[in-house]
Amino acid sequence: MGINYIGIGDFAVSNKPDDIIKTMALGSCVGIMLYDPKLKIAAMGHIALPDSKVRGQRGMDKPGRYADTGIPLLAKAMLNKGSKRGRSLIVKIAGGAQINDPNDTFNIGKRNVLAVKKILWKCSLILKAEDTGGNIGRTMQVGVDTGEVTLSSPGRSKWKL
């Protein structure tokens, strides 16, 4: 079994049944998982910010960091592995918490979640489940063989999404 760890702005896609794709420290960031249950292909990305345009050309150093550029890249990676875009894909997201922003001054978590949902809609990807908001950080992982998404957070038992 291989564990593919992805960091902020990274993504991974796998069709190896024994693989697990995992991302950690989803505070205001949003983890997005795409799964093709027929072909058993899983992909996961770690989105940090809603829009690449705020960074101009510098924002393209890591396009997976932004919802508007990262989600299309993730969908394209699934297509490159043989998946078909559309209703057969299972889409789940987690994160988007209010961390280190007690007065909700910046609302980065909420803005990230809204941007992710908007881009999913534009890409004709239908969200099946989410665990977003609140004030806890999350770790998200998916098993390629089953597509099962497990979440964890310090001081809490693991839970399924």
General description of the model:
This protein has 161 residues and is of the alpha+beta class. It has one domain (3-160): 60s Ribosomal Protein L30, Chain: A. It has 2 helices and 10 strands. Strands 1-3-8-9-10 form a 5-stranded mixed beta sheet, with no helix packed on it. It has a 5-stranded mixed beta sheet with strand order 2-5-4-6-7, with helices on one face. It is globular and about 45 Å long. The two termini are 22 Å apart. The model has no long low-confidence stretch (mean pLDDT 90).
Quick structural summary:
The chain is of the alpha+beta class and 161 residues long. The protein has helices spanning 67-80, 108-122, and strands at 3-6, 11-14, 20-26, 30-36, 41-47, 90-95, 127-132, 138-143, 149-152, 159-160. It has two helices and ten strands; from the N terminus they run βββββαβαββββ.
Notable traits:
single chain, 161 residues, alpha+beta, 60s Ribosomal Protein L30, Chain: A, 5-stranded mixed sheet, 18% helix, 33% strand, globular
Specify Rg, calculated over alpha carbons.
15 Å
What structural class do helix, strand and pairing data support?
Answer: alpha+beta
Query: How many structural domains can be distinguished in the coordinates?
Result: 1
Order of H and E elements: EEEEEHEHEEEE
The best one-word shape is globular
Assembly state of the chains shown = single chain
Helix content: 10-25%
In CATH, the architecture is 2-Layer Sandwich
How many angstroms separate the termini? 22 Å
Show the helix and strand layout.
Elements: E1 3-6, E2 11-14, E3 20-26, E4 30-36, E5 41-47, H1 67-80, E6 90-95, H2 108-122, E7 127-132, E8 138-143, E9 149-152, E10 159-160
Parallel strand pairs: 1-3, 6-7
Antiparallel strand pairs: 2-5, 3-8, 4-5, 4-6, 8-9, 9-10
Helix pairs in contact: 1-2
